[in-house]
Write a structure and sequence with these properties.
alpha/beta; TIM Barrel; globular
Length: about 350
């Protein structure tokens, strides 16, 4: 069932209309203030940064897609080569097949990416049941530099074979934070993270999250298309979630490194996410669609174009580094502004003015 589900997910995300219908990322409401005198050359703009102290050549993550199916092997090995070439982070899909069945398809890519940051992945419900020793062994075998623990209650309750009991999640995360040799990144799966959730994560020692907000791929929608039994429920909750930019705005001044995924499909969106305080942006569906259309060469071309767009956006705001981009002045539209909590530091950068 799990292998069939993963194959369905890849096929639907590559070809079907699985985007949010009415909800957008709200990244379109993040205005970047043009600097007509940037006093920089384009070559001076430095895209290098770090995530959980791991150096990155650019603030971009090739986000979690798949593993444990035949399709995952060529895809993930190609993505690993691209990640290595450009110094990007690469996320695996759920490692449940590896942990439960010893299925290694798509997970052993370290030989293709000796230096790239590799992110493991496991659902919080499965993490409750897995021993730390077994999990640490899997992370060691795959050479992962961090573990993404994904939260996906909206997706699961629409999935006919999905989980229904989400108790004990925060305790499981706390256990992994204190017991694993690699850092834990907590990520949503298309419905975003609220400030209240992020504050709970900070209290148990989490240092990085991936907001995976609403506005990109609706995983509720994906599951609705897979199963007649829950189609009506999925249709009703298709647009459920916190928009990506809204989730970023809510987390602005917390002690967290933040990856912005969820509808991020080009470099200007990554630049907007950085301006909202993100550590890096992440892309998944755009990468999968490029792979489907033209294989590794198309993925490489997408990455080259995305990095070019990030660099130009930084130049045109006068930001010579990722750190400077995260401090740049922003203009926020009214729908996004409603999500910004009173008193957060983002509000201090809303009016145009000197940086």
């Amino acid at each position: 069932m799990s292998e069939s589900r993963k194959a369905d997910h890849l096929a639907l995300c590559a070809t079907a209309a699985v985007g949010f219908r009415d909800t957008t990322t709200l990244l379109e409401e993040v205005g970047l203030v043009h600097e007509a005198l940037p006093e920089l050359s384009l070559d001076q703009v430095d895209l290098s940064t770090s995530l959980l102290r791991h150096p990155l050549g650019a603030p971009l993550v090739l986000s979690a897609m798949t593993g444990g199916v035949d399709e995952a092997e060529p895809l993930n090995r190609a993505l690993a080569r691209v990640a290595q070439e450009f110094g990007l982070a690469l996320g695996f899909g759920s490692m449940r097949p590896l942990l439960e069945r010893g299925d290694r398809r798509g997970y052993l890519v370290r030989d293709q990416a000796p230096d790239a940051m590799l992110l493991g992945n496991l659902g919080v419900v499965q993490a409750r049941k897995i021993g730390l020793g077994q999990l640490q062994d899997a992370l060691g075998e795959t050479g992962c530099d961090a573990l993404c623990v994904h939260l996906n209650p909206a997706m699961e309750v629409v999935q006919p074979e999905g989980d229904r009991d989400f108790r004990g999640g925060i305790e499981a995360i706390a256990r992994m934070v204190s017991g694993l040799d690699v850092p834990v990144i907590v990520k949503e799966t298309g419905s975003g993270l609220s400030r209240a959730t992020a504050e709970r994560l900070v209290r148990v020692g989490v240092r990085a999250v991936d907001v995976s907000g609403a506005g990109g791929t609706s995983w509720v929608g994906v599951e609705a298309l897979r199963a007649d039994a829950t189609r009506a429920l999925g249709e009703r909750f298709w647009d459920w979630g916190i928009p990506t930019a809204a989730s970023l705005a809510q987390l602005t001044d917390l002690e967290l490194e933040v990856i912005a995924t969820g509808g991020v499909s080009h470099g200007i969106d990554v630049a907007r996410a950085l301006a909202l305080g993100a550590t890096a942006g992440g892309m998944a569906r755009a990468v999968l669609q490029a792979w489907t259309a033209g294989g590794e060469a198309a993925v490489r071309a997408l990455v080259v174009q995305t990095l070019r767009e990030i660099r130009v956006a930084m130049l045109l705001t006068g930001a010579g580094s990722v750190a400077a981009m995260r401090r740049t002045t922003v203009v926020i539209g009214p729908n996004l502004m409603r999500w910004v909590p009173p008193g957060v530091s983002l509000r201090q950068r809303l009016a145009a003015g000197p940086r």
